Amino acid sequence: MDTTNSPLERVLEIPEIIERISAYQDRRTFASATRVSKSWYRAYLPILWHTIDNGKHWNDPGFLKAIVQHGDLIRVLVCARYDEIDILIPPPKGADALEQSVSLCRFLTTVVMPKTASRNQKQQAQFIRQNPGLRDLSLTFNDQLSSTFTELVDAIGDLKHLRRLSFDGNRSLEATTLETILQRCSSVSPDGNGSLQELSLSRTSFLRHPFGRGEDFASGVVATRGEDAHWTDTQNSHDTTIPTKEPFAITTLRMDKVGCVQDLLLNLCSRFPSLSKLSLSEADELYYSDGFPKRLAQRCPNIKWLDVSHTEDMDDESMAELISSFPGLQTFIAEETRFGTESLNALVEHCRDLAVLDITNAYEMDSAAMQRLLNSSWSLRSLNAWGVAYNVIEMMQEAHREQKRQGGSSTLTDGQPWVCTGLERLILNVIYSPPDDSRVGNVYPPSRARRFLYDQLGRLTKLRYLALETSLEDYEDTSDCDGYEDDEDYYGQKKEVRDHAVEDEDVDSNEVWVDYSFKSGLRRLGSLKELQQLSLHDVSHNITLAEIRWMAETWPHLRKIEYLTSAITDQDAQTILEYAAENYPWIQFVEDD
Description:
The chain is of the alpha/beta class. Among the domains are: about 195-305, no CATH class; about 365-593, no CATH class. About 30% of the residues lie in helices and about 15% in strands. It has 19 helices and 19 strands. It has helices spanning about 5-10, 15-20, 25-35, 40-50, 60-70, 95-100, 120-130, 150-155, 175-185, 260-270, 290-300, 315-325, 340-350, 365-375, 390-405, 440-445, 445-460, 545-555, 575-585; strands spanning about 50, 75-80, 110, 135-140, 165, 200, 220-225, 240, 250-255, 275-280, 305, 330-335, 355-360, 380-390, 425-430, 465-470, 535, 560, 590. The strands form two sheets. It has a 17-stranded parallel β-sheet. Helix 8 runs parallel beside helix 9 (about 175-185) and helix 10 packs parallel to helix 11 (about 290-300). It is flat, with a radius of gyration of 30 Å. It starts with 6 loop residues before the first helix and ends with a strand. This is F-box domain-containing protein.
């Protein structure tokens, strides 16, 4: 062992330590660290050059000189449309020996190529060949038909480790080109050759596109249109059987922000029987017709991950039919859609393996349906339902109905408990909205609804992220059972906190709602030992420093609290925030997104 090196220098020889340190630093820090010593130079230089994003630095002579010197350290290279990669290609034979000895990009794993044209096709093909370990490749064909780029297509076909291929935003990709590439990179063969698994055609308008409607690409059962049907008319399309072609081993297809008729999607998917992940986020012009989900399921029966977020061409009924066609769904993303009660009921009825659901800002839906989901989805791990209000009264009523249907009892005093005890991420908007029938309101007062919700949350012992939007709507408490008076002075001086325990908790008050205060029943959440992040966005203002101290001491993995000052009841919120930051430095207090 070289004892001349300092202990710090020897530590920096351990890659795992460098990797952990670099997670908390930016590129400017890396650049400065390389100038400290030779050991730091060796340790930080590969991290500094690992990823090169497109930007103004491509026009900097100093950067261009350095990238030639350190090109072999680059693993991720992202080029802009008009960047030149000639400097990263070996000089021609007969060039100066010094130029031939420069370090070039030969170990890339991910590359986004500049726009392909006739003038740079050969250079791009050569660049791909000098990086045989490529796993992720993005290309742009815009000016000429892709069939003219034969050298580039051959180079792509020689990649033995390619996992992802992207033609995002293309305007000239032809079906024959895609066929050729997939035959060499993704075919399902007896010897297991073919590594390509993900195909992306995002940000592409296929209307009036050289790719056409994909009939030449399709296999087996193909969607066709009637003889007199308009280009964008899908109501007349029907299925007909054609000879089966070789299937491709694509498991992920991304069609985000595309414009295409549904027949094109069906024709594409007919060659991907192993497809398990399909993204149609912000897809346009699809106009989902009756029977489309079943036709899609006939071609790709193994879809388990589906993203239809930000789509306007699918109503609640159509989305419910889509969900019903894929009972094996494990992830469903429907943010900013017309996902509603029918869709939610379809998930409850058909998708027992659902693990991730994102319905942020979806349509209003039945609160009882949300209770049924939480009471039936054993596999649920992540739920994001922000922007949709669920009335706890209706959830409690459904919990009691379910308990009565099952004819059993529960550890909860208020109905059937949530079975999704494996939830790790929960984002939910819960409200108490008094019913028109005052008799129901008397049965389910806010105090009872609050205890129901806290008891349910307390069962989710694997929660790591919790964000509740809470509100008590239009409720007037006419009873005199509150019996609670604010205990003043939870904190004294800036650095002093009262030591006595807070006894006033879970008070039977109809004026209190879910606000993470002791008086609302915060201690019922003491079982959330895995909680790492808590969001207080749109939480009623009742939190004091005593509650913050309890959270820090009770939840050992807590590392972030969002929007703390907005949930503090005292006017001197900054004082509390400073105290918390000083005494609990392991917790990050974030006040914005």
